Input
Amino acid sequence: MEVTWKTNRITEILPEEFYALIDRNREHIRKTFPVTLSGCDDIDKTKDFITKAKENEQNKENYYFYVRNTDSSALIGYVCIKNIDSKVSKCELAYFVDAAFEGKGIITKAVGETIAFCFDELKMNKVFICTSTVNLASQRIAVKHGFVKEGILREEFKNGEGTLEDIVYWGLLKSEYKK
Output
């Protein structure tokens, strides 16, 4: 079955639907999205999390894109632009798709749209992605979009279990970007 989807900005997100996405994917994203998980322990915390995200976007600190299944309008994924450094004109992407929708190319396409936003709208010179050394699916997404593996940052990320992990740093320069 082919899944059709569309990407929405944060203004079109309800805390209840974001909580449902996080809740059904807790195990799936346990290690890689600890801040999101702790910010969405229950519906009240999720409301605060979404309110803060909206404030961050209004302040141009982060940007958020949400992926919906057009058949059911269910929220099935999330792409975040974060760690924006306007002095260097670079930003980081973080993303995941509902475990039930993995392997369908959905998050690859959503990341592609977000990269275009970073270069075209935000006028970034560099977009980077940091992945766990064992997150091969996320690394494949980086490669598909032309990112270059720049190195391993040792014990750079504290995962959801509290363990420091090495991460793979991937970069894409505007001069290398192909729409």
Summary: The chain is about 35% helix and 35% strand.
